[in-house]
C-alpha cells in the first residue's frame, strides 16, 4: 500500500516570485488516469521497487533497483514490449534528440520530449496519457529530467521558468521565474533536472555567466533559498566544523575596473544534486571558473576560487552552508566534477560510514563522509608543475586509488598499432615528436620551450617536462593532457549496487589541449580516437574491480542502472542497449534501438511484471552530426513480442559514428587543387602577414583532401613563389598519424610527394605547432561484378523462432565469384536497405577450382550473422550488396555485387 508523503520541511516562502497563470497552452490529454498518488520510495538510500520516482532512481542517485524478476538466467527472453515515438504524439513535431532520463510513478513514465515539453506514458502499454508544451513562454531545449511530488510533475521552460504540471492531466499548476529576495538574477534554469523532496523543488542554473541552486515551495513555486557557486564579496560561511571563512577572498581582489571575478562567470551547477533525508542535507556540485578572462586563464583570479569545482552540502530546508570539498583548486582546465552526487552507507575498515561519491571528469573518485565532507578513503596533496602566469595551486588533491590513467601514453606510430591505447597522445603535442623508427620522444627545442622560463617543477619530478598528465599547466601554447573537459565521467550518472558494493563509472577517453583562447574550454586533439567504456570499483576500497572498454564515449548521459539480480543495463550513443554482468562486466545481452542513447535506462513494475525502459533520442557529444537522432521510448519485458516496421524486434543499425575527432571543412576533391596541400596556411589565396605560418586548427589548406587510391599528393611549405608578399618564414612538418606513413619537415618553398596506395583516412599535423591538422581521405570507387553474388538459399529465414529476442549463433551463407587475377584483401561487408552502417561479414573463406590448366576460378564463401542482418533488412523481396577489397596486379581495388533475396521473418 502506498503511503502519501505529507511531511513538510516547514520553511516559510520568502523572496520575490514571478507567478504566471497560463491557459493558452494546456496539455493534450489523451487518457485520463485514476487520481494521482505521490511518488513512493523518495528516500535517500533505499533501492527502488515498482517505481523509479527520480532521475537518480532514489534521492541518493544510486540508480539501483531491488527488482529481481529479470535475471541472468532468463535474460535471453528479454524483448521489447512496446515503443513510443514521443514526438509523434499530439501536439506532434519532428523534433529529435534529448538527454533526459525518464522517471516512473505509479506505473506512469514521465519524461522530457525532444522539443522540450513533457509527456506521460503508460508504462505497461506505451500509450500516451498526456503531453504538455507551452507556446506562450516557450520551452527549454536541452533537458535532463523532470521530478515528481505532491501530485505534480516539475520541469523547466523558456524564460528561466520552473513549471509545475498536474501529474494526472498535464495542466499547468504554476510557472515561476525564480529570483532572490532582493530581486537577484539567479541565472538560467533551462537544462538541469529538477529534484523534488518533501515539498521542495530544487532547480539548478547553468550555461550563463553565473547561476545558483534555488529551492522553491512545491505548492506554489515561491522562493525558499538559493546558493551561488561564486560568492558575493565579503560573504562568510561557517561550517559544521565551526570554522568561519570568507569564500570571496579565494578569488583575489576586485579588479581596478570594478570587476569581481567570483560574480562574473562560471561556478555553475550543471547536474542535479542529491538529497540526504536522514541528515537533512542537499548536496550539489559546482563547475569550473570561467571568468576573468576565460576558463583557461587564471591570471586575474588568484586563489582557490571557491566554490568552483566543488561539492557543497547545505541544509535542505534553509540552504544554510554545512561543508564543502573542492576537487580542483584554481581550475584552469574545465576539469570540474559535476556529475550527480551518489550517496551510500558502506563499510570501510570494519566501520559503517555515510559516504558520497564525488568526481567524474578527473578520472578519480573522492569518497567523502556526508556528515562533514572529510575523505573516507585516502587522499594525497600531490605537488604540481606550476606556471607563474597562471597563479596555479602548488598542490592538488588526488585519491590514492585512481580509476583512469593520470598521464597520456606516447605510443609509437606504426600501422600495427591501430587504434592503440585509448589514452594515446597525438604526435607533436607537448613536444613529443617521432624519431626515425616512429617512437614519440620529447624534443626540448620544440614549441614548448617558450614556456620553460615560467614553469616550476616539483622537487624530484621524474622527467623535468610536461608529459600530458593531469593538471599540466598551459598558457598561450597548446598542452595536451588527460582526461578532458569531455572525458572521464563528465556528466553521466553513476550507479551503486547494494548487492555487489561496486560503484559503476561510465567514462570517455578524449584528451584535450588547453591554451588561452581555446574555444569550448579546450581543443580535443584533431584526429584522436574518441572512445570510452564502463568500469566498476569497490566502494569500500576504491580499487577497480573490472573495466570494459566498449569503444564508444560513455560520459555524456550514458549512465548505468544496477539491479538486485546483479545485472547492469547501460545504453550507448551507437543505439545499443546492453545488459552486463554487474560482477565482472561481461556483456550478456544487447539490443539495437535505432537511435543514439544519451540517457540512463530505468526499471519498474506494473501488474507484477518487471520492465526495463530507455529513451533513445540521440545527442551530439562528442560525435556531432554523425549521431543518429531519434525520439523513441522503448520498454522491454520477459517474453515481449513487439516488432518494428521491418518485422524485427530491433531498430536498424545507427549511422557510422565519427569516432576520430574530425578536421574542419568539407572534403575538397584533389583534382580541384592540383592534389596539393599547403602547410601552415588557412587560405590558398590570402597573401597577408596574418595568414603566414598559421597555427589555427584549419591551418592546412585544404584541411580535408579527398583523392582516389593511387594518387600522388604534394605537401608544400609555401614560400615566395606561392605568396610573394608574405611567404611562410618557418619550417613546417607533415607528420602522419597514427600509422606513421610519413613525417617530413619542409623549409619555405620545399615540397614532399607521397603516393597513397591504400584506401583510408590519413591525418597529419605540424611539428612547429600541432594545432594545424589535415586529413587525406583516400577512396576506392567500387567496380560492379555482374551476377557474382548468390545466396543459398535465396529465401532468407530470419526473425526469431523462439518468440523472444535471442542471440543464437545462426548464419546466412552467400558466395561471391572472384574475377580472375583478383586476390581477396579484406573489408568484406554487406550494404543493407535499412541502414547506412554496413553489416560486417562474420567469416570469409576462399575456395577455388581450375576449369583448365590456364584458368583459375575462385569464390569467397561468406557467412553473415543472422542477428546482425535481421533488423537491417525488410520482410519480402529486397536486394543485398556485397563489397570487399582486393589486390589486382598489385593495385588495391574494391569490387561489389548485388543479389536479390526474399526475407521471411
TrEMBL record:
Keywords: Oxidoreductase. The lineage of its organism: Bacteria, Bacillati, Actinomycetota, Actinomycetes, Micrococcales. Gene3D superfamilies: Cupredoxins - blue copper proteins, Quinoprotein alcohol dehydrogenase-like superfamily. Its cofactor is pyrroloquinoline quinone. Pfam families: PQQ. Residues 53-147, 202-612 form the Pyrrolo-quinoline quinone repeat domain. Belongs to the bacterial PQQ dehydrogenase family. It comes from the Bacteria. This is Pyrrolo-quinoline quinone repeat domain-containing protein. The keyword Transmembrane does not apply.
Amino acid at each position: 500500500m502506498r503511503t502519501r508523503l505529507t511531511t513538510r520541511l516547514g520553511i516559510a516562502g520568502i523572496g520575490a516570485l514571478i507567478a504566471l497563470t497560463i491557459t493558452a497552452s494546456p496539455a493534450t490529454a489523451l487518457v485520463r488516469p485514476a487520481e494521482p498518488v505521490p511518488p513512493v520510495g523518495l528516500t535517500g538510500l533505499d533501492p527502488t521497487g515498482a517505481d523509479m520516482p527520480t532521475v537518480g532512481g532514489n534521492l541518493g542517485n544510486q540508480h539501483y533497483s531491488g527488482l529481481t524478476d529479470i535475471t541472468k538466467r532468463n535474460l535471453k527472453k528479454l524483448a521489447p514490449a512496446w515503443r513510443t515515438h514521443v514526438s509523434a504524439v499530439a501536439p506532434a513535431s519532428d523534433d529529435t534528440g534529448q538527454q533526459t532520463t525518464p522517471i516512473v510513478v505509479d506505473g506512469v513514465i514521465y519524461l522530457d520530449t525532444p522539443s522540450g515539453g513533457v509527456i506521460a506514458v503508460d508504462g505497461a502499454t506505451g500509450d500516451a496519457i498526456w503531453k504538455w508544451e507551452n507556446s506562450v513562454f516557450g520551452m527549454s531545449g536541452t533537458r535532463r529530467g523532470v521530478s515528481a511530488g505532491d501530485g505534480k510533475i516539475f520541469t523547466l521552460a523558456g524564460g528561466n521558468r520552473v513549471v509545475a504540471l498536474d501529474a494526472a492531466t498535464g495542466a499547468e499548476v504554476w510557472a515561476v521565474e525564480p529570483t532572490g529576495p532582493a530581486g537577484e538574477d539567479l541565472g538560467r534554469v533551462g537544462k538541469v533536472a529538477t529534484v523534488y523532496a518533501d515539498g521542495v523543488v530544487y532547480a539548478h542554473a547553468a550555461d550563463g555567466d553565473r547561476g545558483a541552486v534555488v529551492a522553491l515551495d512545491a505548492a506554489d513555486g515561491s522562493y525558499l533559498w538559493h546558493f551561488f557557486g561564486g560568492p558575493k564579496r565579503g560573504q562568510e560561511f561557517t561550517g559544521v566544523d565551526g570554522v568561519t571563512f570568507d569564500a570571496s577572498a579565494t578569488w583575489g581582489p576586485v579588479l581596478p575596473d570594478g570587476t569581481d571575478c567570483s560574480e562574473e562567470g562560471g561556478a555553475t551547477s550543471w547536474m542535479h544534486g542529491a538529497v540526504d533525508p536522514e541528515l537533512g542535507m542537499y548536496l550539489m556540485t559546482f563547475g569550473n571558473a570561467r571568468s576573468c578572462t576565460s576558463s583557461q586563464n587564471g591570471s586575474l583570479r588568484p586563489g582557490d576560487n571557491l566554490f568552483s569545482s566543488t561539492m557543497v552540502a547545505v541544509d535542505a530546508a534553509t540552504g544554510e552552508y554545512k561543508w564543502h570539498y573542492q576537487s580542483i583548486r584554481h581550475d584552469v582546465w574545465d576539469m570540474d566534477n559535476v556529475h550527480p552526487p551518489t550517496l551510500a552507507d558502506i563499510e570501510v575498515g570494519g566501520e559503517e560510514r555515510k559516504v558520497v561519491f564525488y568526481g567524474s571528469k578527473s578520472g578519480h573518485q573522492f569518497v567523502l563522509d556526508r556528515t562533514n565532507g572529510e575523505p573516507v578513503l585516502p587522499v594525497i596533496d600531490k605537488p604540481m608543475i606550476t606556471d607563474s602566469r597562471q597563479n596555479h595551486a602548488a598542490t592538488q588533491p588526488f585519491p590514492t586509488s585512481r580509476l583512469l590513467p593520470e598521464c597520456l601514453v606516447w605510443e609509437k606510430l606504426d600501422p600495427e598499432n591501430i587504434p592503440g591505447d585509448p589514452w594515446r597522445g597525438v604526435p607533436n603535442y607537448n613536444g613529443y615528436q617521432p624519431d626515425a623508427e616512429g617512437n614519440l620522444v620529447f624534443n626540448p627545442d620544440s614549441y614548448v620551450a617558450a614556456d620553460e622560463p615560467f614553469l616550476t617543477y616539483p622537487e624530484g619530478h621524474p622527467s623535468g617536462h610536461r608529459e600530458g598528465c593531469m593538471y599540466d599547466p598551459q598558457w598561450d601554447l597548446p598542452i595536451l593532457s588527460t582526461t578532458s573537459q569531455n572525458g572521464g565521467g563528465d556528466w553521466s550518472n553513476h550507479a551503486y549496487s547494494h548487492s555487489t558494493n561496486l560503484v559503476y563509472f561510465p567514462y570517455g577517453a578524449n584528451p584535450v589541449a588547453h591554451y588561452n583562447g581555446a574555444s569550448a574550454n579546450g581543443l580535443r586533439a584533431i584526429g584522436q580516437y574518441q572512445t570510452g567504456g564502463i568500469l566498476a570499483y569497490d566502494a569500500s576500497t576504491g580499487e577497480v574491480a573490472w573495466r570494459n572498454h566498449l569503444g564508444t564515449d560513455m560520459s555524456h548521459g550514458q549512465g548505468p542502472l544496477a539491479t538486485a539480480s546483479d545485472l547492469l543495463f547501460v545504453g550507448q550513443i551507437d543505439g545499443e542497449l546492453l545488459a552486463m554482468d554487474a560482477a565482472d562486466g561481461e556483456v550478456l545481452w544487447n539490443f539495437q534501438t535505432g537511435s543514439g542513447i544519451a540517457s540512463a535506462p530505468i526499471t519498474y513494475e506494473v501488474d507484477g511484471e518487471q520492465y526495463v525502459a530507455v529513451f533513445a533520442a540521440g545527442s551530439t557529444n562528442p560525435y556531432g552530426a554523425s549521431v543518429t537522432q531519434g525520439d523513441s521510448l522503448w520498454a522491454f519485458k520477459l517474453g515481449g513480442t513487439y516488432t518494428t516496421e521491418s518485422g524485427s524486434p530491433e531498430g536498424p543499425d545507427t549511422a557510422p559514428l565519427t569516432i576520430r575527432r574530425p578536421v574542419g571543412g568539407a572534403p575538397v576533391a584533389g583534382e580541384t587543387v592540383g592534389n596539393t596541400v599547403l602547410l601552415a596556411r588557412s587560405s590558398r589565396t590570402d597573401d597577408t602577414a596574418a595568414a603566414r605560418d598559421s597555427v589555427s586548427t584549419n591551418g592546412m589548406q585544404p584541411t580535408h583532401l579527398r583523392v582516389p587510391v593511387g594518387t600522388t599528393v604534394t605537401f608544400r611549405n609555401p614560400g615566395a613563389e606561392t605568396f610573394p608578399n608574405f611567404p611562410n618564414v618557418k619550417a613546417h612538418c607533415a607528420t602522419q598519424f597514427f600509422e606513421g606513413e610519413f613525417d617530413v619537415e619542409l623549409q619555405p618553398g620545399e615540397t614532399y610527394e607521397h603516393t597513397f596506395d591504400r584506401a583510408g583516412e590519413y591525418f597529419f599535423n605540424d611539428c612547429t605547432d600541432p594545432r594545424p591538422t589535415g586529413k587525406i581521405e583516400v577512396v576506392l570507387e567500387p567496380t560492379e561484378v555482374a551476377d557474382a553474388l548468390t545466396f543459398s538459399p535465396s529465401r532468407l529465414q530470419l526473425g526469431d523462432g523462439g518468440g523472444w529476442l535471442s542471440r543464437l549463433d545462426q548464419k546466412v551463407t552467400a558466395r561471391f565469384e572472384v574475377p580472375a587475377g583478383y586476390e581477396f584483401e579484406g573489408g568484406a561487408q554487406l550494404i543493407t536497405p535499412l541502414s547506412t552502417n554496413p553489416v560486417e561479414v562474420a567469416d570469409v573463406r576462399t575456395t577455388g577450382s581450375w576449369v583448365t590448366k590456364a584458368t583459375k576460378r575462385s569464390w569467397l564463401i561468406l557467412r553473415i550473422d543472422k542477428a546482425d542482418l535481421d533488423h537491417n533488412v525488410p520482410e519480402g523481396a529486397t536486394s543485398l550488396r556485397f563489397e570487399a577489397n582486393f589486390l589486382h596486379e598489385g593495385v588495391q581495388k574494391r569490387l561489389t555485387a548485388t543479389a536479390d533475396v526474399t526475407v521471411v521473418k
